[in-house]
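#help-structures
NK: newbie question, is this the right format to request a structure? protein is STAS domain-containing protein
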Amino acid sequence: MNTEATESTLYTVKENVAVEPERRDSLDHRENFPNFGHHIVRQFNNLWTKETALRRLPFLKWAPNYNLTSLVSDIIAGITVGLTSIPQSIAYATVANLEPQYGLYSNFMGSFIYAFLGSVKEITVAPTAVMALMVQQPVLDLGPAGAVLLSFLSGCIMLLLGCFNFGFVVQFISMPVITGFITAAAITIISSQLKSLMGISSSGKSSGFVDTWINLYENIGETRLWDSVLGISSLTLLILLTLIKGRGKGAWKIFTKYICLLRNAMIVLSGGLLAYICSTQEKYPFRLTGKVASGLPSIQLPPFETEHDGKHYDFGDMLRILGSSVISIPLISILEIVSIGKAFSRGRLVDATQEMLSLGCCNVASSFISSIPTTASFARSAINSSSGVVTPFGGVFTGALVLLALGLLTDYFFYIPKTTLAAVIIAAMIFIIEYRAVAEMWRIKKMDMVPFLVTVIACLFLGLEIGIVVGIAVNLCFPLYLTSRPRITHRIMNVKEATVLIIRPDSDLAFSSAEYFREKILKLVTKTLPDIVLIDGEWVKFVDSTVVRNLSSTVSDLKQQERHVLLWRWDRNVRNALYRFKKDKFMPLFRNDESAEKVIENWKPGFVNDSFVNNV
């Protein structure tokens, strides 16, 4: 007895309802849709399980085993990160065209929230150079309210995406596009900081790469000698300290490690001390940061309307001005935190959905204290890791140190030279460019240089938001092209004095490949002039309506040429799709013999294979 035919009697249309072979021909081959109601109910029920609680509240995993040793390690790591984070936050506020205190406002709430909701212990959530650059234009258009509203809206979008498990969205952004985006952002930020490094105080503020260089060229004559000397010296020292980090042996290796961890704080403090000493002699050779508002920020709702440059903007006006940044900023934030999480996961799986939820909460909560959008910082996360952090609770001590600085140290920030802050930012950007990734792309797959270069150029000349969209679009053209041109193999065989052309597509067939598949068959038939065309569908598990129509017209064209067509080893779902289109036309064509030779040997024109019909 035919085993497949016997097993086919168990085929059911509805659960627990067997269908006998003789009734098979009357089936309508309905398409099985997923039961969305059942899926929603199951997801809702899963919300109240212990596993979900541990996954969505990660602190429940480490809190029961938290001890004094872990606390000491987290305090050391948190304070070390804080000493780096404070000067960087002040510097990033200047990148965003904001007053220095906004950088500090953005630097503590995210640390507190992520300590309890974050799943990667090394990650620190704070303002970054990329986020500062992306809010630069909204700040120019709307003032600080534009950046704060972006933080709130970005957080809401991240929470929404996380609730619907849309973590897979980041998979559409490839490594060449990510590398190109980071490279362009770093170049843009370095360009924007050259004025401060050289002591140029021009009135015009620009956010674009081209505008920045034009502005620099027009004001190059305002370069200040001592600002340039201090800035270039600070930049050189920062680069050298980064390069010697961890080199040498014994005590020297430990010394260089910790000196390098604190290099930003040392440079900023040294520059501030030098400026203060000069001020006591009534000399001011450097452009200073100036007054930084002291005290903690007030807790208030995000600004849904604002006044800027004498104009009133309601929520609709603000949304229109913010434009695509409302979408691009949360996507870039998600991309950064997931990428950094994977870099420090050490083989553990990173829950992208949980990272989206935690980062969304960080941004929404931070918007109530006048924060700009925040995300994970690779440099500070690396410092956190090398400092021996044990749990995400180390972020609490980073946040506490920032609060302490806001309450007690803002008067001393007045004397920080702007050129040292520019040196800190430029040094960070020099090392954030992934030179090794570019070299790997060139070595592994030179074609990946195309989306990389397109992304870099588009981001530099069209802006980061448009540039990354252009990069993604260009990159997606590659898999789309491959989908539209599936690999199709063929061979010629002679059986019973008949010439048989066997054609096999090696992947699924979608609308983009439908016409190509049809043309390929017709060209091969014209070239080989077979009596029988055997289409092997072993690897085809999916077709759409366009493919079905094209396949039907191909069969008709071949029959007009008086050639016989057989379909061999096609998946049940594909067969059913063809039956739903024209059952009488396709039913006689299908065969399921073990080999192509047996297909031809058992075939008779107009004969329907009963064993196959019983197996439908």
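mod (FA): yep, format's fine, and the tokens are attached above. The longest strand covers residues 488-495.
NK: thank you!
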